[in-house]
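Running this now, will post back.
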Amino acid sequence: VCVWLLLADVSAQSKKTRDHLTEMEVEQVRDVQQIDLRIEVFIKAADRRILVLTNPAAVQKEKEEKVWGPLPTGTKAELLTDYKKILEEGEEKLDDLYERDPKNDQLKKALRKFKDAANRQIPQLRAMAAQLSDKKDQRALAEAIEEAETVTKADTGN
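Update: finished.
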């Protein structure tokens, strides 16, 4: 009986784990190895969360759904946390490449794209503040904005 309760607890915990990318977004990341194109995947994934947050009735074109899958779902806090984690993963990929090859031409291009996207997304995120009354949502929004601001301050050191 104790083993069954332990397994039930582990199973319940595993169901609580949420991936910040959808299955098809993960496939997109896996398929694209070039850093500037991979960053574009992270940007698109982040934009998809902002779209759902700012327009819950949003629909996408059939062609886009075939490539990216259904729009992400979740609570506001979950989508904002996903957004933050997407940016963090993009930063990790840039950092990894910088450590291996700081002079890589694609690195500067990727970082510029990432920073431009974050600069575009920050006002969209800030505009959500007035609509969030739940403390958990507000905290997730603040963390998402903070992460986006971190991206805008990134520098390749070149």
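Residues 80 and 140 are 6 Å apart (CA to CA). More later if anyone needs it.
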